[in-house]
Backbone:
């Protein structure tokens, strides 16, 4: 009897479930008809593995880039990243300038540890979490920043490249 019920259940459930999945996929396709993926035409630049080489890894707020990362053990971070990577992960640094005080968001397309450093001190994030479905970003971290030069430290990435965009909100 249990077997017969499971057979009936297996044949009657998929149609409504499939219809629900199709409707959800259709709604997502309509919602994301033109996904906002800031790095579709982004430049690729090498992340820095040390503070001495940051001039070669500059980000401009509002412009997305792909950063080519280094094995985490090869990176000399300015601060100890909150999520220090493992030997098999990748990381790196890039600098950016804040000209106007305000709220800035760092968006990345991978699940990576993100720290923003001013001088030798890591800024405290005011918010962080998953990005919206259609943003093309996986994670975003928000900071209140004052004018100055900052260093973006990324660590613990599973891939050797990551899409990054810093935007003023």
Residues:
């Amino acid at each position: 009897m249990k077997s017969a019920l499971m057979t009936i259940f297996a044949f009657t459930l998929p149609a409504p479930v499939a219809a629900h999945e199709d409707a959800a996929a259709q709604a997502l396709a309509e919602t994301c008809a033109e996904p906002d993926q800031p790095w579709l035409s982004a430049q690729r630049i090498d992340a820095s593995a040390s503070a001495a080489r940051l001039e070669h890894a500059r980000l401009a707020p509002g412009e997305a880039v792909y950063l080519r990362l280094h094995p985490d053990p090869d990176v000399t971070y300015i601060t100890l990243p909150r999520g220090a990577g493992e030997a098999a992960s990748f990381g790196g640094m890039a600098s950016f300038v804040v000209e106007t005080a305000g709220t800035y968001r760092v968006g990345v397309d991978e699940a990576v540890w993100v720290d923003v450093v001013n001088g030798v001190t890591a800024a405290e994030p005011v918010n962080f979490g998953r990005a919206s479905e259609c943003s093309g970003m996986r994670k975003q971290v928000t900071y209140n920043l004052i004018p100055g030069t900052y260093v973006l430290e990324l660590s613990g990435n599973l891939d050797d490249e990551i899409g990054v965009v810093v935007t003023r909100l």
